């Protein structure tokens, strides 16, 4: 593993955590170990405190070797067409910078999309408040004794009151259904992202354990070279420190985000329930003609409607940010090596640097295979005369050598005829195990064979550790070359983003419908109450006059 591998591993996980904030948390106002020793985990679906994680990853990078080459100078604007909106900070010219969460113009342009709902909320709050004040002043200062009554106005106000009450009920249903679906999709997205972070941590821990096991491997009196063991000690300490801290912070952050999701879900449910109760109660009191309770509900509804309009605007803004982020991720998948707004978060390098990042895993694989082959070739397959220290009555067919996947320069090597691979070495070598009898000099074969059970166990253990380091190669290459992140993004954009966009849209639509319908219902509560009172007073005047 090279220095760039540690840095880009940190970038991978940092972005996974950033995605929680960009896609999951904003939509609502806002890693575990089960390993094995010899092979990477397969079958997985493949602001909180950031700086300590970045520092720990940097420590890993400092322990490792070569520096990655610079990125390509070519640049690419993420989500260019989708983010082409008018920018109030630039004279309302169209914003052309693409998705860039560090750009104030981006936030200004996307925020402009929610301005209509914000304005409606403010205008409603101020306008209706002034209207209530004027009406109160009028009735306090100008007492009216004549009452005009229109059957058409009475019937029309009743019809519209029923209509807008039904619309408010429909809006509450949309809001409740939408928040439920959005909670499921955001929770699923969070689960997937956390699972990917856990997947990374778990494989790094397993790789670290394989390196640790490699230091303890011995075949006869042969061990890994001392310089390789020193490198393993340094890298293992850094990897364990980073992996443990990352696992802890991923767990803490995911729990905090789940708390946010649950809290906001509860808030949306409460909003839907309160608005539904307000609608029913207002309708019932209006029909009964209870003026004082109706006016009290009007004042409560006046404030609630303004708040829900503002909230619907916030959800519209984050709905657009979610859409922009999904398109930006898809664009990055198609252009992973171009210079984009993601470079500061997730720098990617070319294939040459990805190969350099595998240096340590390749070296351990090479050296362990050499230890096994040197023992087989120089001791097991030699016919020593009795009395020599290396003699244990080895006889029979020679033991096949282990296929070393790398040349001394760590380039790929093809297996030669007669060599055994990692997959079947233990089964093949078992045929060369002899029965032994214990003597003062050690185990001695009493039957045909070239491996004692003790030696067989040692070379199988060494081969298992070597195979583990070798099998982690693709995982490390995917981290370094951003293939891992590219696949993660691709899964999110195709499996999670459609649901996130659809369900966040339902929430803001539900809030907007509830706000508008309850706003109009408030007006007709007052109008219908007036018409009902006029109708009642007109009847009294008619009876008195007759």
TrEMBL record:
GO CC annotations on file: plasma membrane; plasmodesma
Residue ranges crossing the lipid bilayer per the database entry: 12-33, 117-140, 152-176, 263-287, 294-318, 506-530
InterPro entries: DDB_G0292058-like (IPR040283)
Keywords (A to Z) from UniProt: Membrane, Transmembrane, Transmembrane helix
Domain of life of the organism encoding this protein: Eukaryota
Protein name: Uncharacterized protein
């Amino acid at each position: 593993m090279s220095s760039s591998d540690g840095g880009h591993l940190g970038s991978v996980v940092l972005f996974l955590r950033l995605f929680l904030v960009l896609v999951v948390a904003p939509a609502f106002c806002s890693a575990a170990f089960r390993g094995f020793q010899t092979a990477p985990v397969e079958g997985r679906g493949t602001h909180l405190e950031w700086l300590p994680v970045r520092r720990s990853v940097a420590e890993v990078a400092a322990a490792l070797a070569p520096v990655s080459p610079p990125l390509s100078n070519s640049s690419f604007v993420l989500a260019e067409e989708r983010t082409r909106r008018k920018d109030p900070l630039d004279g309302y010219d169209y914003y052309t910078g693409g998705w860039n969460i560090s750009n104030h113009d981006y936030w200004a342009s996307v925020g402009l999309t929610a301005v209509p709902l914000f304005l409606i909320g403010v205008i409603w709050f101020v306008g209706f408040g002034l209207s209530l004040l004027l009406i109160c002043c009028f009735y306090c200062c100008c007492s009216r004794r004549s009452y005009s009554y229109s059957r058409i106005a009475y019937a029309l106000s009743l019809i519209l009151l029923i209509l807008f009450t039904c619309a408010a009920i429909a809006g509450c249903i949309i809001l409740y259904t939408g928040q439920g679906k959005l909670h499921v999709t955001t929770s699923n997205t969070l689960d997937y992202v956390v699972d990917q972070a856990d997947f990374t941590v778990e494989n790094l821990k397993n790789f670290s354990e394989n390196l640790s096991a490699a230091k303890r491997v011995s075949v006869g009196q042969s061990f890994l070279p001392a310089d390789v063991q020193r490198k393993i000690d340094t890298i293992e300490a850094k990897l364990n420190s980073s992996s443990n801290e990352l696992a802890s912070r991923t767990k803490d952050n995911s729990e905090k985000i789940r708390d946010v999701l649950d809290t906001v879900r509860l808030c949306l449910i409460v909003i839907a329930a309160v608005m539904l109760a307000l609608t029913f109660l207002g309708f019932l009191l209006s029909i009964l003609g209870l003026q004082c309770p109706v006016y009290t509900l009007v004042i409560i509804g006046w404030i609630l409607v303004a708040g829900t309009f503002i909230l619907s605007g916030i959800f519209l803004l984050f709905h657009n940010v979610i859409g922009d982020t999904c398109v930006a991720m898809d664009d990055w998948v198609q252009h992973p090596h171009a210079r984009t707004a993601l470079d500061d978060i997730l720098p990617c390098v070319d294939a040459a640097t990805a190969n350099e990042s595998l240096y340590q895993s390749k070296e351990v694989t090479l050296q362990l295979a050499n230890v096994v082959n040197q023992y087989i070739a120089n001791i097991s397959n030699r016919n020593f005369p009795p009395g020599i220290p290396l003699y244990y009555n080895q006889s029979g067919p020679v033991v096949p050598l282990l296929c070393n996947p790398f040349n001394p320069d760590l380039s790929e090597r093809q297996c030669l005829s007669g060599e055994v691979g990692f997959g079947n070495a233990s089964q093949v070598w078992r045929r060369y195990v002899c029965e032994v009898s214990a003597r003062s000099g050690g185990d001695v074969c009493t039957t045909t064979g070239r491996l004692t059970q003790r030696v067989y166990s040692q070379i199988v253990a060494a081969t298992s550790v070597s195979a583990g380091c070798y099998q982690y190669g693709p995982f490390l290459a995917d981290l370094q070359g951003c293939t891992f992140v590219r696949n993660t993004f691709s899964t999110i954009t195709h499996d999670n983003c459609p649901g996130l966009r659809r369900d966040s849209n339902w929430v803001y639509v539900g809030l907007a419908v509830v706000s508008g319908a309850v706003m109009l219902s408030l007006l007709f509560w007052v109008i219908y109450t007036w018409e009902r009172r006029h109708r009642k007073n007109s009847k009294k005047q008619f009876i008195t006059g007759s």
